Amino acid sequence: MTSSLKELGAQFESSTGHKLVFRFGTTPELIKLASTGGPFDLAVVPREVFKDDAAKAQFASGPTDDVARVGLGVAVRAGAPKPDISTPEALKQTLLKAQSIASIPESAAGAQVLRVFERLGIGEAMKAKIKAQSGPAQIVQAVAKGEAELGVFLVNVLTAPGLDVVGPFPAELQQEVVFTAALAAETKEAEAAKAFITYLTTPAATAVIKAKGMKPG
């Protein structure tokens, strides 16, 4: 959500006069930020954050608002041949033939990638191939520079200069990361925080979310 939130945050600031300060991170980092990182007003995070009891306790009770979702896909270096991933078996063979794969195992999406590997029966074989990256930008860089043959992560991350997206995972294997928005239990700016969450569901915001390769809601 980094690029989307930066763009939407700037638009929100311009139209309301509120000032937003973002802190970005992988799912484990966001859990740590929510539970021990000091005061905050709202969060837009993968649903997995709320599976951690300590993090969940920092949010206001009640339902959260889903704002965006995105599935998993595969990318290669720009100009490189695109392998077949059209079926589960084709994806399995492409992964087994690949010399190296860039992903972020410690993130929510990375965990989903690993679960797909297990479903395909190649979890053990993939361990030696995975080149763990620290963030989305590093995945793009690793594949674009040829340091990793494939990028396997969220499609919106892989839609970047220097990469060619091969396509999404086959429907039978597809997993989505759902980003949801929620107020902090101790927010001092509840009305402004609620206004930003509402803004994330407006036509202007959903247009940006779609343009960044994600589905609104």
Descriptive account of the structure:
There is one protein chain. By secondary structure, this protein is of the alpha+beta class. The chain contains 10 helices and 8 strands. It has helices at residues 2-16, 27-36, 53-56, 88-97, 108-119, 123-127, 136-144, 155-158, 190-199, 203-211, and strands spanning 42-46, 65-77, 101-103, 130-132, 150-154, 163-168, 176-183, 215-216.
Rough shape? globular
Judged by helices, strands and strand pairing, the structural class is alpha+beta
Distance between the termini: 13 Å
Query: Are there runs of 5+ residues with pLDDT below 50, and where?
Result: none
Helix tally? 10
For the CA atoms, what is the radius of gyration?
18 Å
Strand runs, count: 8
Strand content of the residues, in percent?
Answer: 15-25%
Helix content: 40-55%
The largest pleated sheet is described as: 8 strands, mixed
What string gives the helices and strands in order? HHEHEHEHHEHEHEEHHE
Mean model confidence by pLDDT? 95
Which properties best describe this structure?
217 residues, alpha+beta, eight-stranded mixed beta sheet, 10 helices, 41% helix
Short description:
This protein has 217 residues and is an alpha+beta fold.
What's the helix and strand layout?
Elements: H1 2-16, H2 27-36, E1 42-46, H3 53-56, E2 65-77, H4 88-97, E3 101-103, H5 108-119, H6 123-127, E4 130-132, H7 136-144, E5 150-154, H8 155-158, E6 163-168, E7 176-183, H9 190-199, H10 203-211, E8 215-216
Parallel strand pairs: 3-4, 3-5
Antiparallel strand pairs: 1-7, 2-5, 2-6, 2-7, 2-8
